[in-house]
From TrEMBL:
Protein origin, superkingdom: Eukaryota
InterPro entries per record: BTB/POZ_dom, SKP1/BTB/POZ_sf
Segments traversing the membrane: none
Protein name from the UniProt record: BTB domain-containing protein
BTB domain span: 35-105
Pfam families per record: BTB
Amino acid sequence: MASRSMSLSSATAPNRKEWAFTYQATSPAFNFPDADVILRTPDHVEFRAHKLVLSLASPVFRNMFASPQVPPTAANEGQDWKDGLPVVALTEPASVLDALLRLCYPLKDPQFSLFDQVTAALEGAMKYEMDEARDMLRGKLKEWAEKAPVRAFAVACRYRWKDEAERAARAALRVPLPELIIHSQELEHISAGSYVRLLLYHKACGTAAAYPAHWGDWISVYHNDRIYLNCPTCHSDSSDTSHSFFGVPNRQNARVARWWKEYMDRAGDRLRETPLADVAEPKMVWQALARAMECASCRPRAVAEFQTFLGEFQAEIARRIQKVVLTIDF
Ligand SMILES: [Zn+2]
């Protein structure tokens, strides 16, 4: 009867003839002199490890070691046995196995410079049912959500991790919508429905974030005397509908300063495409204030009053985005 170790071995092990001519490197970090098992990777690296440690970290390894093993013979030396130790051939490359073993042994945690490394290690942790390693890698997913939100979202959906999916979707709001339409290997593991939910969430947040840039019903009546809503000099006349700003309470005919309206239009356009765009970034602010300086009435008040306004504007954007719900099917 085939043991689990044999089935793992047979999945990737080259034939005996190849073994005879293949040099096997030994992992420098996992070359314990008291090792009682050798893990061999397809890229020809051997890890001399301990069955006990592997068994404690992984029920898959525990079951594997509990199964009867092929006895050592002269014929299987080098393949199933080496230096008196059983050999288990795995499918993970050395870089992935190194990361997984570091999470099982009391060693420094692996460093991941690429998202592919995280996903490959996570896949191994799930395969070998290494709960501790999985939880640590799940934490890494949160870190990577900011750098690779679509990929992190796909991984979270694959493993049905709601918090991580929501965090990645939220991070995606810092990216323009067209840039979310990318292919990545992680998307192959989730449904089209899950991916479209991410895009629809982003779109809904864009609409919600842009609203306060175009409609003033959220603006407190206390703003009415501020120069950007009440400029006697640079406001547009009532026939110029392109400069109307609707919904300001008690100010149906607000004398909206031209520079402010231009800023709000730009902000609205940006927010629709990138809901978490920084509308108070220096470039946008200085562009608005430079225009304000052209108006004698706005000039002395614009800097202070616009600064106050920006804080309130950002808070309103955040409040509206917060109300948008990501619908996910798990
Ligand atoms: Zn003005």
